[in-house]
Design a protein that fits this description.
Layout: H1 2-25, E1 53-62, E2 65-67, E3 71-72, E4 82-100, E5 105-120, H2 126-133, E6 136-148, E7 153-166, E8 178-191, E9 194-203, E10 210-220, E11 225-231, E12 234-242, E13 245-260, E14 270-288, E15 291-299, E16 301-308, E17 319-322, E18 329-338
Antiparallel strand pairs: 1-4, 1-18, 2-4, 3-17, 4-5, 5-6, 6-7, 7-8, 8-9, 9-10, 10-11, 11-12, 12-13, 13-14, 14-15, 14-16, 15-18, 16-17
Protein backbone atom coordinates (compact mmCIF):
# COMPACT_ATOMS: atom_id res chain seq x y z
CA UNK A 1 0.00 0.00 0.00
CA UNK A 2 2.81 2.39 0.88
CA UNK A 3 4.51 1.59 -2.38
CA UNK A 4 1.34 2.37 -4.35
CA UNK A 5 0.87 5.74 -2.58
CA UNK A 6 4.48 6.63 -3.20
CA UNK A 7 4.07 5.93 -6.96
CA UNK A 8 0.81 7.96 -7.08
CA UNK A 9 2.36 11.06 -5.45
CA UNK A 10 5.41 10.83 -7.72
CA UNK A 11 3.21 10.70 -10.81
CA UNK A 12 1.17 13.76 -9.73
CA UNK A 13 4.35 15.71 -9.02
CA UNK A 14 5.72 14.87 -12.51
CA UNK A 15 2.47 15.96 -14.22
CA UNK A 16 2.42 19.21 -12.27
CA UNK A 17 6.02 19.96 -13.25
CA UNK A 18 5.31 19.15 -16.92
CA UNK A 19 2.29 21.48 -17.10
CA UNK A 20 4.20 24.36 -15.53
CA UNK A 21 7.11 23.95 -17.95
CA UNK A 22 4.77 23.78 -20.98
CA UNK A 23 3.09 27.03 -19.96
CA UNK A 24 6.43 28.82 -19.87
CA UNK A 25 7.41 27.59 -23.36
CA UNK A 26 4.10 28.71 -24.97
CA UNK A 27 4.21 32.20 -23.50
CA UNK A 28 2.20 34.78 -25.58
CA UNK A 29 4.71 37.32 -26.90
CA UNK A 30 1.94 39.45 -28.43
CA UNK A 31 1.59 41.07 -25.01
CA UNK A 32 4.87 42.83 -25.59
CA UNK A 33 5.20 46.04 -27.64
CA UNK A 34 7.54 46.59 -30.60
CA UNK A 35 11.22 47.04 -29.81
CA UNK A 36 12.17 50.64 -29.16
CA UNK A 37 13.86 52.47 -32.05
CA UNK A 38 12.07 50.57 -34.87
CA UNK A 39 10.72 53.10 -37.43
CA UNK A 40 7.83 52.23 -39.71
CA UNK A 41 7.24 53.75 -43.17
CA UNK A 42 4.19 54.35 -45.35
CA UNK A 43 3.70 51.97 -48.26
CA UNK A 44 2.91 53.17 -51.81
CA UNK A 45 -0.47 51.42 -52.21
CA UNK A 46 -3.90 51.21 -50.64
CA UNK A 47 -5.82 47.98 -50.22
CA UNK A 48 -7.41 46.53 -53.40
CA UNK A 49 -5.60 49.02 -55.64
CA UNK A 50 -5.21 48.02 -59.29
CA UNK A 51 -1.93 46.15 -59.85
CA UNK A 52 0.96 48.15 -61.23
CA UNK A 53 2.00 47.31 -64.78
CA UNK A 54 5.67 46.31 -65.16
CA UNK A 55 5.41 45.38 -68.86
CA UNK A 56 2.48 46.42 -71.05
CA UNK A 57 1.86 45.96 -74.78
CA UNK A 58 -1.38 47.19 -76.34
CA UNK A 59 -3.25 48.10 -79.51
CA UNK A 60 -5.78 50.93 -79.86
CA UNK A 61 -8.27 51.52 -82.66
CA UNK A 62 -9.90 54.93 -83.18
CA UNK A 63 -12.89 55.08 -85.50
CA UNK A 64 -13.37 57.47 -88.43
CA UNK A 65 -13.80 61.20 -87.89
CA UNK A 66 -13.97 64.43 -89.84
CA UNK A 67 -10.99 66.78 -90.11
CA UNK A 68 -12.67 70.13 -90.88
CA UNK A 69 -11.20 72.73 -93.20
CA UNK A 70 -8.01 73.64 -91.44
CA UNK A 71 -8.29 77.20 -90.22
CA UNK A 72 -5.10 78.94 -91.27
CA UNK A 73 -3.59 82.12 -89.93
CA UNK A 74 -4.73 85.15 -91.95
CA UNK A 75 -1.59 85.13 -94.04
CA UNK A 76 -2.38 81.63 -95.39
CA UNK A 77 -5.21 80.23 -97.49
CA UNK A 78 -7.90 77.84 -96.28
CA UNK A 79 -7.22 74.14 -96.87
CA UNK A 80 -9.95 71.71 -97.87
CA UNK A 81 -11.79 69.39 -95.48
CA UNK A 82 -10.43 65.89 -95.02
CA UNK A 83 -11.78 62.68 -93.48
CA UNK A 84 -9.73 60.24 -91.39
CA UNK A 85 -11.06 56.70 -91.79
CA UNK A 86 -9.26 55.38 -88.69
CA UNK A 87 -6.22 55.75 -86.45
CA UNK A 88 -4.17 52.68 -85.50
CA UNK A 89 -2.18 53.06 -82.31
CA UNK A 90 0.49 50.85 -80.72
CA UNK A 91 1.40 51.44 -77.09
CA UNK A 92 4.17 49.87 -75.03
CA UNK A 93 5.31 50.52 -71.48
CA UNK A 94 8.08 49.21 -69.23
CA UNK A 95 8.63 49.91 -65.52
CA UNK A 96 11.52 48.23 -63.73
CA UNK A 97 12.09 48.50 -59.96
CA UNK A 98 15.70 49.54 -59.36
CA UNK A 99 15.50 49.95 -55.58
CA UNK A 100 12.61 48.57 -53.52
CA UNK A 101 12.95 48.90 -49.74
CA UNK A 102 10.66 50.15 -46.99
CA UNK A 103 12.62 53.45 -47.06
CA UNK A 104 12.52 54.19 -50.80
CA UNK A 105 11.14 52.78 -54.06
CA UNK A 106 12.84 53.84 -57.30
CA UNK A 107 11.66 52.77 -60.74
CA UNK A 108 13.02 53.34 -64.24
CA UNK A 109 10.77 53.03 -67.26
CA UNK A 110 10.35 53.44 -70.99
CA UNK A 111 7.30 54.15 -73.13
CA UNK A 112 6.23 54.14 -76.78
CA UNK A 113 3.12 55.67 -78.39
CA UNK A 114 2.80 55.40 -82.18
CA UNK A 115 -0.25 56.64 -84.13
CA UNK A 116 -0.89 55.97 -87.82
CA UNK A 117 -3.58 58.24 -89.32
CA UNK A 118 -5.34 56.98 -92.44
CA UNK A 119 -6.48 60.08 -94.29
CA UNK A 120 -8.86 59.57 -97.18
CA UNK A 121 -7.82 61.29 -100.43
CA UNK A 122 -5.08 63.54 -99.00
CA UNK A 123 -4.70 65.14 -102.44
CA UNK A 124 -2.16 67.97 -102.58
CA UNK A 125 -2.55 68.82 -98.91
CA UNK A 126 1.06 68.53 -97.68
CA UNK A 127 0.05 68.07 -94.03
CA UNK A 128 -2.55 65.38 -94.85
CA UNK A 129 0.00 63.58 -97.02
CA UNK A 130 2.54 63.60 -94.20
CA UNK A 131 -0.03 62.23 -91.72
CA UNK A 132 -0.88 59.45 -94.15
CA UNK A 133 2.71 58.46 -94.90
CA UNK A 134 4.30 58.56 -91.45
CA UNK A 135 3.51 57.63 -87.86
CA UNK A 136 3.09 60.19 -85.13
CA UNK A 137 5.54 58.82 -82.57
CA UNK A 138 6.29 59.59 -78.93
CA UNK A 139 9.00 57.52 -77.22
CA UNK A 140 10.94 58.19 -74.06
CA UNK A 141 12.27 57.24 -70.66
CA UNK A 142 11.01 58.06 -67.19
CA UNK A 143 11.95 57.74 -63.54
CA UNK A 144 9.70 57.61 -60.47
CA UNK A 145 10.71 57.81 -56.80
CA UNK A 146 8.37 57.07 -53.88
CA UNK A 147 9.99 58.29 -50.66
CA UNK A 148 8.16 57.66 -47.37
CA UNK A 149 9.28 60.04 -44.62
CA UNK A 150 7.58 58.13 -41.80
CA UNK A 151 4.46 56.04 -41.26
CA UNK A 152 2.21 58.91 -42.44
CA UNK A 153 4.04 61.30 -44.78
CA UNK A 154 5.52 60.57 -48.20
CA UNK A 155 6.85 62.27 -51.33
CA UNK A 156 6.62 61.28 -55.00
CA UNK A 157 8.97 62.54 -57.72
CA UNK A 158 8.51 61.74 -61.40
CA UNK A 159 10.45 62.94 -64.46
CA UNK A 160 10.34 61.97 -68.13
CA UNK A 161 12.08 62.84 -71.38
CA UNK A 162 10.32 62.08 -74.68
CA UNK A 163 11.27 62.34 -78.33
CA UNK A 164 8.17 63.21 -80.38
CA UNK A 165 7.69 63.69 -84.07
CA UNK A 166 6.04 62.86 -87.36
CA UNK A 167 9.14 61.20 -88.76
CA UNK A 168 9.91 60.18 -92.34
CA UNK A 169 13.08 59.43 -94.30
CA UNK A 170 14.00 63.11 -94.50
CA UNK A 171 13.23 63.94 -90.85
CA UNK A 172 15.99 63.50 -88.29
CA UNK A 173 15.63 63.26 -84.53
CA UNK A 174 17.01 66.45 -82.99
CA UNK A 175 16.63 68.39 -79.74
CA UNK A 176 13.64 70.14 -81.35
CA UNK A 177 11.69 66.90 -80.87
CA UNK A 178 12.49 66.65 -77.14
CA UNK A 179 9.97 67.43 -74.37
CA UNK A 180 10.68 67.28 -70.62
CA UNK A 181 8.01 66.67 -67.99
CA UNK A 182 8.12 66.40 -64.19
CA UNK A 183 5.84 66.07 -61.17
CA UNK A 184 6.45 66.55 -57.44
CA UNK A 185 3.89 65.52 -54.78
CA UNK A 186 3.81 65.68 -50.97
CA UNK A 187 1.24 63.45 -49.31
CA UNK A 188 -0.28 61.84 -46.27
CA UNK A 189 -1.23 58.20 -45.80
CA UNK A 190 -4.20 58.35 -43.47
CA UNK A 191 -4.67 54.58 -43.31
CA UNK A 192 -4.18 51.45 -45.39
CA UNK A 193 -7.33 52.53 -47.28
CA UNK A 194 -6.60 56.20 -47.85
CA UNK A 195 -3.63 58.22 -49.14
CA UNK A 196 -3.81 61.78 -50.44
CA UNK A 197 -1.28 64.31 -51.72
CA UNK A 198 -0.84 67.54 -53.63
CA UNK A 199 1.89 69.06 -55.75
CA UNK A 200 2.75 70.62 -59.09
CA UNK A 201 3.41 69.24 -62.58
CA UNK A 202 5.20 70.42 -65.70
CA UNK A 203 3.41 68.58 -68.49
CA UNK A 204 2.63 68.40 -72.21
CA UNK A 205 -0.49 66.25 -71.79
CA UNK A 206 -2.68 69.10 -73.06
CA UNK A 207 -0.54 69.31 -76.21
CA UNK A 208 1.54 72.27 -75.07
CA UNK A 209 3.68 73.05 -72.06
CA UNK A 210 1.69 73.95 -68.95
CA UNK A 211 2.36 74.11 -65.21
CA UNK A 212 -0.60 72.87 -63.17
CA UNK A 213 -1.40 71.95 -59.55
CA UNK A 214 -1.86 68.21 -58.97
CA UNK A 215 -4.24 66.28 -56.71
CA UNK A 216 -3.21 62.71 -55.87
CA UNK A 217 -5.82 60.62 -54.03
CA UNK A 218 -6.13 56.84 -53.78
CA UNK A 219 -8.95 55.66 -51.53
CA UNK A 220 -10.63 52.30 -50.90
CA UNK A 221 -14.14 52.74 -49.50
CA UNK A 222 -14.86 49.05 -48.86
CA UNK A 223 -14.11 45.60 -50.28
CA UNK A 224 -15.74 46.52 -53.62
CA UNK A 225 -15.42 50.26 -54.25
CA UNK A 226 -12.50 52.67 -54.49
CA UNK A 227 -11.00 55.51 -56.52
CA UNK A 228 -7.59 56.39 -57.96
CA UNK A 229 -6.94 60.03 -58.89
CA UNK A 230 -4.02 61.97 -60.32
CA UNK A 231 -5.91 65.05 -61.45
CA UNK A 232 -5.77 66.60 -64.06
CA UNK A 233 -3.92 63.72 -65.79
CA UNK A 234 -6.41 60.95 -64.94
CA UNK A 235 -9.04 59.78 -62.51
CA UNK A 236 -11.02 56.54 -62.05
CA UNK A 237 -13.69 55.00 -59.86
CA UNK A 238 -12.86 51.33 -59.21
CA UNK A 239 -15.14 48.35 -58.62
CA UNK A 240 -13.45 45.12 -57.51
CA UNK A 241 -15.58 42.17 -58.60
CA UNK A 242 -12.92 40.10 -56.85
CA UNK A 243 -9.14 40.22 -56.43
CA UNK A 244 -8.53 39.25 -60.07
CA UNK A 245 -11.40 41.03 -61.84
CA UNK A 246 -11.66 44.84 -61.78
CA UNK A 247 -13.86 47.39 -63.58
CA UNK A 248 -13.03 51.12 -63.71
CA UNK A 249 -14.75 54.19 -65.11
CA UNK A 250 -13.08 57.56 -65.51
CA UNK A 251 -10.92 59.67 -67.81
CA UNK A 252 -7.37 60.34 -68.96
CA UNK A 253 -5.75 63.32 -70.65
CA UNK A 254 -3.13 62.32 -73.25
CA UNK A 255 -0.94 64.34 -75.54
CA UNK A 256 2.40 65.88 -76.37
CA UNK A 257 4.12 68.28 -78.75
CA UNK A 258 5.49 66.71 -81.96
CA UNK A 259 8.07 68.14 -84.33
CA UNK A 260 7.26 67.80 -88.02
CA UNK A 261 8.57 69.05 -91.36
CA UNK A 262 5.86 70.21 -93.79
CA UNK A 263 7.04 70.31 -97.41
CA UNK A 264 6.04 73.18 -99.69
CA UNK A 265 6.03 75.71 -96.87
CA UNK A 266 8.24 78.68 -96.05
CA UNK A 267 9.60 77.05 -92.89
CA UNK A 268 11.58 73.85 -92.39
CA UNK A 269 10.01 72.76 -89.09
CA UNK A 270 6.65 73.00 -87.36
CA UNK A 271 5.24 71.65 -84.10
CA UNK A 272 1.97 69.72 -83.80
CA UNK A 273 0.38 70.28 -80.40
CA UNK A 274 -1.91 67.28 -79.84
CA UNK A 275 -4.09 66.86 -76.75
CA UNK A 276 -6.86 64.27 -76.27
CA UNK A 277 -9.40 63.94 -73.45
CA UNK A 278 -10.60 60.34 -73.07
CA UNK A 279 -13.60 59.42 -70.89
CA UNK A 280 -13.64 55.62 -70.76
CA UNK A 281 -14.57 52.32 -69.10
CA UNK A 282 -11.86 49.73 -68.40
CA UNK A 283 -11.87 46.05 -67.51
CA UNK A 284 -8.81 44.32 -66.04
CA UNK A 285 -8.80 40.52 -65.71
CA UNK A 286 -6.13 38.21 -64.35
CA UNK A 287 -5.26 35.45 -66.84
CA UNK A 288 -2.69 33.51 -64.85
CA UNK A 289 -0.01 34.33 -62.31
CA UNK A 290 1.10 37.93 -62.90
CA UNK A 291 -0.30 38.11 -66.46
CA UNK A 292 -3.39 40.31 -66.86
CA UNK A 293 -5.62 41.26 -69.80
CA UNK A 294 -7.02 44.79 -70.10
CA UNK A 295 -9.75 46.18 -72.36
CA UNK A 296 -11.20 49.67 -72.57
CA UNK A 297 -13.77 51.57 -74.60
CA UNK A 298 -14.33 55.29 -74.64
CA UNK A 299 -14.55 58.57 -76.51
CA UNK A 300 -11.53 60.30 -78.02
CA UNK A 301 -12.41 63.97 -77.52
CA UNK A 302 -10.20 66.47 -79.35
CA UNK A 303 -8.71 68.87 -76.82
CA UNK A 304 -6.11 70.49 -79.06
CA UNK A 305 -4.81 69.92 -82.58
CA UNK A 306 -2.70 72.96 -83.50
CA UNK A 307 0.35 73.30 -85.70
CA UNK A 308 2.67 76.08 -84.51
CA UNK A 309 5.72 77.58 -86.17
CA UNK A 310 7.50 78.01 -82.83
CA UNK A 311 8.57 75.54 -80.13
CA UNK A 312 6.09 75.87 -77.20
CA UNK A 313 4.17 78.37 -79.32
CA UNK A 314 1.03 79.84 -77.78
CA UNK A 315 0.26 83.08 -79.62
CA UNK A 316 -2.09 83.36 -82.61
CA UNK A 317 0.64 84.77 -84.80
CA UNK A 318 2.69 81.61 -84.11
CA UNK A 319 -0.09 79.27 -85.31
CA UNK A 320 0.18 77.76 -88.77
CA UNK A 321 -3.27 76.17 -88.53
CA UNK A 322 -5.73 74.52 -86.17
CA UNK A 323 -8.52 71.98 -86.64
CA UNK A 324 -11.53 70.96 -84.60
CA UNK A 325 -11.30 67.21 -85.21
CA UNK A 326 -14.35 64.98 -84.88
CA UNK A 327 -14.71 62.95 -81.68
CA UNK A 328 -14.96 59.20 -82.41
CA UNK A 329 -15.20 56.13 -80.19
CA UNK A 330 -12.05 54.12 -79.57
CA UNK A 331 -11.18 50.62 -78.32
CA UNK A 332 -8.00 49.46 -76.58
CA UNK A 333 -6.67 45.99 -75.73
CA UNK A 334 -3.45 45.14 -73.90
CA UNK A 335 -1.53 42.34 -72.19
CA UNK A 336 0.21 43.31 -68.96
CA UNK A 337 2.75 41.70 -66.67
CA UNK A 338 2.03 43.22 -63.24
CA UNK A 339 3.80 43.50 -59.90
CA UNK A 340 2.88 41.16 -56.98
Amino acid sequence: MKIQLTILFASLSFLSFSQTDSTEVLEDYSNYGEPEGVKRYATQKVLNQTPQKIISLGYEYTGGFHMPGLRIAESFSILEDRHVSQVNVVKAQLNIPVVATNKIIWQLGANYWGSQFQVENPGTNAFAQLLNQSSLISAGINSTIFKPLNETNFMIFQASADVNGLFNQQAKVTSNALTLSATAIYGWKKSENNMIGTGIARTYRAGRLIYVPVLFWNKTFNDKWGMELLVPARGFVRYNINTSNIIQAGFELEGNQFSMPIPSTQRDLFYLQRGEFKPRIMWDKKITGFLWFSAQVGLRYNYRFDVMNKYDGKEDNERYFTSNLGNPLYFNFSLNFVSP
